Amino acid sequence: MIVSVIGVGYLGAVHAAAMAELGHDVIGLDVDSGRVAAMQAGRAPFHEPGFEEILRRGLAAGRLRFTTDYAEIAHADVHFLGLGTPQRADGFGADLRYLEAAVASLAAVLPARGGAPTLVVGKSTVPAGTARRLRAQLTAVPGADLMWNPEFLREGFAVQDTLAPDRLVYGVAAPDTPAADAQVALLDAVYAQLIAAEVPRLVMGFETAELVKVSANAFLATKISFINAIAELCEATGGDVTDVARAIGMDDRIGGKFLRAGIGFGGGCLPKDIRAFIASAEDLGVGEALGFLREVDAVNQRRRVRVVEIARELLGDLAGRRITVLGAAFKPDSDDVRDSPALEVVSRLMSAGAHVTVTDPEALDNAAKRVPGLVGEPHTEQALAGAELVLLLTEWREYRGLDPVRVRNLVAAPRMIDGRNVLDPGVWRDAGWEIRSLGRGA
Ligand code: UGA
Fold it and tell me: ipTM of the predicted structure?
């Protein structure tokens, strides 16, 4: 089967390489010629474990290539849409321009197939109603139709999540019709190996499929903000949020995952997706239904401010103080700094006049582009030298495993704020550190 993937950002690039891994002939398309050239040369434009390996394998096998030219993908049987839907500059809603432009460009070249069946499959996270509107852009193209197949991959686990997902969700214009059945069969053929491995596959209407994706992300964000709200209570009472999370998580109905309290969620998905979900509910006249998501967002923002308050509690005035921040990425095993809680804390510390040194194994280049004047130091020990306060803000394995005795000899004063609750406070205190965590006592 010949497959195209339009938009080879994070989602699209991984999807393209994964489809080649499944044995398809894949052409990835992007308007960014630099990105296309890098991937054609086998270079991953972002850090993602295992991605470069499958990218190179696909290229070497001749099953994967990249282009900027829509004419080169016109002959594909299936076109996946992997374009970004960022937060709109003028508000909370999702910016769908890239998707709309891609479908328009595709519609212009598809008549070259002479009416042969062609399936366009949306993967981006979109407000309910988008798939139906995009499908309307294709009505004039004989043989073409659209499905919605949201993607649930996590950064850091993207390859594994694409090739062995928890479930496949297929959205169709009209379930249980012959047209839908034919489309489902075609997409099943694309994912034949996953279906054979008994990955559950759910077929539903467009709007439901769109809602599944945003609901999943909103639920995850809510879980994180719930435990971070409890962290505020723990700080006010002397309780320990990590024990609360462990204990409530042992109830199967609650589940222990995504209950890690700390400086909160960031990245290119959860923050913008809950805001787009709120905007979409308001557009639909049911804004009250998602009013609680504003609170989820507010709790999340407050944690970033709280870390800086704790820094002030430890140091007093921050002006001129030497602070080292461990971690810039929005989460470990990623070089993504979009809406990174760590970087927002860095910016706030810098605005307060602190001399901040940031270290991160992968994300320093991206961080420097985001935060003007950022001082980055790739080597952890050099970054720690002379610090009056250390903040652990992204829980890379190498920071979780730091030896408090060794590090104490590098810093000017042994003070630590564990923004991710990954260090054992007792061990650090025994090694002579003053350590503060989020949601663990006053
Ligand atoms: C998220 C979802 O988890 C994926 O299922 C989804 O496909 C993806 O968005 C998307 O829509 O594309 P991702 O953004 O890669 O994936 O990151 P997560 O693992 O969800 O983490 C998001 C943020 O929450 C990170 O900043 C992380 O540090 C934070 N987090 C996570 C916590 O603060 N506590 C937790 O317990 C878990």
Answer: 0.98
